[in-house]
Specification:
The complex is a heterodimer. By secondary structure, chain A is α/β, with parallel strands linked by helices. Chain A folds into two domains: 1-17 and 66-342, Aconitase, domain 3 (2-Layer Sandwich); 347-506, 2-Layer Sandwich (Aconitase, domain 3). Chain A is 31% helix and 15% strand. Chain A is built from 18 helices and 18 strands. In chain A, the strands form four sheets. Chain A has a six-stranded mixed sheet, sandwiched between helices. Chain A has a five-stranded mixed sheet with strand order 1-12-9-10-11. In chain A, strands 5-4-3-6-7 form a five-stranded parallel sheet, sandwiched between helices. Chain A is globular. The model of chain A is unreliable at 1-11 and 18-45 (pLDDT under 50). In chain B, α7 packs across α9 (236-242) and α9 packs across α10. Chain B is an alpha/beta fold. Residues 1-72 of chain B have low confidence and may be disordered. Helix content of chain B is 28%, strand content 14%. Chain B contains ten helices and seven strands. Classes of the chains: A alpha/beta, B alpha/beta. The interface between A and B is large, with 51 and 41 residues.
């Protein structure tokens, strides 16, 4: 499909299928859990446990583990795990928000009793963010349900909003949960974070296991502090090469999803390594991990390093212990990319794997541009967009909507100087370029939401968006067309009124 | 809630409404092994009262739910009804668009409302709508899809909306992980996997029967007269039948009753 039209980027990509021999041990393990995998060759590397003696006490680790396996092993108090095993995992943080929280609370009360207490009031993080700035009564009621519950349970981390007229009057209010989790220090290497939102996988950027769950599972975690999880096998993505200055992490993940499809990582972990990944900032790593669910992935993970520790310095005082994949860890397959050869990409309607080069879509006329969400509404995303507007010195040709993910991002947009601008802030540059005034932080129109949501697509328009999904109806209108793109590409497109390669302005 | 939900689903007449099906004989044989999934729990349940076409007058008095062949101890869970066919990558926004997520599934009245919006997000290219205008339930009790059904959001509202609308089972080539898990955890719908592309073999409105035996799972399309093998649901089956993980855990003594 799209791949056939992408000669340059395909050449930057090599898939290495690890041979059967390298997996013989894994195949023998698969027998236990999956009948689908008929095994012809049984070559067990780890002998069946004969006695109480645990491998750790012998001092010899016989097989390597991936970091996802190690995190889950530690959280389930096991020495070692292999993909396919089902284990009870202790949860370090459970996050929920206004869309799923009320249902989670309902399930918790029904199943554990009206007077039940949550398993740990300091490990539950509740973040209203989806439907906040709306007059929808039920949406407002849902935030009230969260507030009542947090008061009753004395939940330590509840980022409340009461004054909908002015978000700045709510010092506790943060905004988009996945970004708030990171900014408030709830994401820590080596931990397990579960959330009632598919983009909970964003936190994998911190070298932790993070995945989305449903209300019923979350209701269980709320009462029990643990959940039965299946250990996923890991796909490894090695990205090397200097990243050209017209690319962003969004291009990398669109490249990967285009390569493996929207179901290419179903039930699997996606581990991102290589010198390109090492050079990425935390926010960029979050973009990368944020969209693993768009490939069907269970979790995404980036090994923690100095960039991670530095980000965490002023955010958490809790001790954490990072883990790393062993040299002999078994990966289901390994993909290699030479990032220096990549070009700016988009995902065309109506699927995140419908990849194309931005320049190939230059004839696609657009009606609007949207910059926001957990994927593309972080401080650096707005900085990137501002950089393009600054370089062009021109005005946008289509309505351009800006929705900072959190209150902190909003503050940054209004206060941080954009490099090379002579001290101008993003907000000043956006104003000069004719963009809409940055809106109150929330999930906004990324997922449509109530009818009165700011920038919601209430008509069948064509939109270039820095968000994460473009299935029919995602931003509000079933016949709307969404082109997913990086903030660079989104800003460039706003300036021309067509899908535009940012190199037109950045070079 | 789960128990109420199941009862509602099953006592919903349309779920078992039979419209123009042939050959008659094959559908009758299908009925002979009809278990009507948990319907025995619903005291007022009567299959007869739900059959609308005259062709079935001769079936006679209510068919009990657990039809067990005396010689064999195994039971067969059976679903029978009209199917609704969708394609690949049906994401959660098409199953239940985000604007309806203000409805809280654990509240019974809002649960019902969620059902009335099931599949409202499908593009207009789906000319036959899943729920007729003015109706709150669907006449289709079986959904047939392609690859990666339920991808996208982790919203549990998706399997809940399907279950609340009257869907008993989804048959797809493959599922997105969270949708599958949520279907089992809530016990709302059976997420069954087909071996081939049934979404190209069946058409919306076809009369189908699903039989989940212990060793043999199949889908019979009475409209075309064809039969297809389904992959076994395994240990997830009893969890869904119980009404979800909490109900199952109580039933099996894993957790105490409140």
């Amino acid at each position: 499909m799209a791949s056939s039209t992408i000669i340059p980027s395909s050449s930057a990509f090599i898939k290495k299928d690890v041979g059967l021999s390298a997996f013989s041990s894994q195949h023998s393990f698969y027998i236990r859990s999956s009948k689908k995998r008929a095994c012809k060759k049984i070559a067990s590397v780890m002998a069946p446990q004969q006695s109480e003696r645990k491998p750790s006490t012998t001092g010899s680790v016989k097989t390597g583990s991936t970091m996802t396996e190690k995190i889950l092993a530690r959280a389930s108090e096991k020495t070692q795990l292999v993909p396919g095993e089902n284990v009870w995992v202790n949860v370090d943080v459970l996050m929920t928000h206004d869309v799923c929280g009320p249902g989670v609370i309902g399930n918790f009360k029904k199943e554990f009793g009206e007077n039940a207490k949550v398993w740990d009031r300091e490990k539950v993080v509740i973040i209203p963010d989806h439907y906040i700035f709306t007059t929808d009564e039920r949406a407002n009621r849902n935030v009230d349900i969260l507030r009542d519950f947090c008061t009753e349970q004395n939940i330590k981390y509840f980022y409340d909003i009461k004054d909908l007229g002015n978000f700045k009057a709510n010092p506790d209010y943060k905004g988009v949960c996945h970004i708030a989790l990171a900014q408030e220090g709830h994401c820590r290497p080596g931990e397990v974070l579960l959330g009632t939102d598919s983009h909970t996988c964003t936190a994998g950027a911190f070298g932790q296991f993070a995945t989305g769950i449903g209300n019923t599972d979350a209701g269980f975690v709320l009462g029990a502090g643990k959940l039965l999880l299946k250990v996923p096998p890991t796909l490894r993505f090695v990205m090397d090469g200097e990243m050209p200055d017209y690319l962003l992490a969004k291009d990398l993940i669109l490249q990967i999803i285009g390569e493996i499809s929207v179901a290419g990582a179903t039930y699997k972990a996606m581990e991102f390594v290589g010198n390109t990944v090492e050079s990425l900032t935390m926010e960029e790593r979050m973009t990368l991990c944020n969209m693993v669910v768009e490939a069907g992935g269970k979790n995404g993970v980036v090994p923690a390093d100095n960039t991670t520790y530095k980000y965490l310095e002023d955010k958490t005082t809790l001790p954490y212990e990072p883990v790393y994949s062993d040299g002999q860890a078994r990966f289901l397959s390994e993909y290699r990319f030479d990032i220096s050869k990549l070009e700016p990409l988009v995902a065309k309607p109506h699927s995140p794997d419908n990849r194309a080069l931005a320049r190939e879509c230059k004839d696609v006329k657009i009606d609007r541009v949207y910059i926001g969400s957990c994927t593309g509404g972080k401080t650096e995303d707005f900085m990137a967009a501002a950089k393009v507007f600054l370089a062009s010195g021109k005005k946008v040709k289509v309505p351009t909507f800006l929705v900072p993910a959190t209150q902190k991002v909003w503050m940054d947009v209004y206060s941080l100087p954009v490099p090379g601008s002579g001290g101008k802030t993003c907000s000043q540059i956006f104003e000069e370029a004719g963009c809409d005034t940055p809106a109150s932080p929330s999930c906004g129109a990324c997922l449509g939401g109530p009818r009165d949501t700011y920038a919601r697509m209430n008509e069948p328009l064509v939109c270039v968006s820095t968000t994460n999904r473009n299935f029919p109806g995602r931003m509000g209108h079933k016949e709307g067309q969404i082109y997913l793109a990086s903030p660079y590409t989104a800003a460039a497109s706003a300036l021309t009124g067509f899908v535009t390669d940012p190199r037109e302005f950045l070079q | 809630m789960a128990a109420t939900a199941t009862a509602t689903t099953l006592s919903e007449p349309s779920a078992f409404k039979l419209v123009s099906h042939r050959p008659v004989s094959s559908s009758l044989s299908a009925f002979s092994s009809l278990k009507l999934h948990s319907a025995a729990n619903s005291p007022n349940y009567s299959l007869k009262s739900q059959l609308t076409t005259q062709q079935h007058r001769h079936i006679g008095t209510p068919i009990r739910s657990t039809t067990t062949t005396p010689a064999v101890a195994s039971t067969v869970t059976t679903f029978h009804g009209l199917c609704y066919v969708v394609g690949d990558n049906i994401d959660t926004d098409q199953i239940i668009p985000a604007e309806y997520l203000t409805l809280v599934p654990s509240k019974p009245d809002e649960y019902e409302k969620l059902g009335s919006y099931a599949f409202i997000g499908l593009p207009s290219s789906y000319e036959t709508r899943f729920i007729e205008p003015g109706e709150t339930k669907s006449k289709y009790s079986i959904v047939i899809g392609g690859d990666n059904f339920g991808c996208g959001s982790s919203r549990e509202h998706a399997p809940v909306a399907l279950g609340a609308s009257g869907v008993a089972a989804v048959v797809a080539e493959s599922y997105a992980r969270i949708f599958f898990r949520n279907s089992v955890a809530t016990g709302e719908v059976y997420p069954l996997e087909s071996e081939g592309r049934l979404c190209e073999e069946c058409r919306t409105g076809d009369v189908v029967t699903i039989e989940l035996g212990e060793s043999d799972c199949k889908l019979i399309n009475h409209t075309t007269g064809k039969e297809y093998k389904l992959k076994p649901i395994g240990d997830a089956g009893p969890v869904i039948e119980a009404g979800g993980i909490f109900a199952y855990a109580r039933k099996t003594g894993m957790i105490p009753s409140p």
